[in-house]
Amino acid sequence: MIDQETLSGFKKWFADYVETFRSDDPDYQLNIDLKEKHTRIVCEGIIDVGRNLALSDSNLRLAEVTALFHDVGRFKQYARYGSFLDMKTENHALLGIRILRTNHVLDDIDEETRELIFYTISNHNRACLPDNESERFLFFTKLLRDADKLDIWRVVTKYYQSNNRKRNCALELNLPDTPEISEWVYKDLMKRNIVKAEHLKNLNDFKLLQIGWVYDVNFPRTLQLVCERKYIEKIYNALPKSEKVIEIYKAVQDYLEKKCDYAEMN
Hints:
Layout: H1 4-19, H2 26-52, H3 57-69, H4 73-81, H5 92-102, H6 111-123, H7 135-161, H8 183-190, H9 203-212, H10 220-229, H11 231-236, H12 243-265
């Protein structure tokens, strides 16, 4: 059980921890600020989706803690490697758990709650979830994955729509901005599969991966917000209009519209 006082203490620890990564380098600080803001908005998003599901106050606080700490490893990852690309650095979720354990952040809460938080963090960035875990653990993980996606979509669509923007290599995972798309990315998405990280060859592949996240949305409120905010359309507008890109977009939009219609009916 996590009470309001415990939650406030976690928020203070997080703020103090992020402060240790402050820098006078504006490009470096930009990405630290980006991740700090991302964390705050994921916290807001998980409460939004959770309230729509009529979660109790105690479960909302638990969900907020998973959101607060889900990307705590990103700060050390960026300080150490200058990159957010797990595949070429290290898994930021597992790094975050090591940081929480080393600093004994969760030591004063009960073991079951602590392990649920660690489980949720460790699985929030996986391509797919295991099917051999308890419903409660999987529920909170799906909740975090939805809230995380919602804010990543916000961040990247704002970035792609910026006029005369300076390229942010960390946000683009240091991928080259070349015109083609990878065959494996096309195949993944046409099968309604989540794009595998090892199939990413350039920035267009990464944008298509972000479009394909709709196949891993778990809750009606998330779908509603995706449709209202037109995230998929905005990413599509930032892609070259090749035959395969158009085909992928039409397939994703068809899927999303049917899901949104179903969610409204229920």
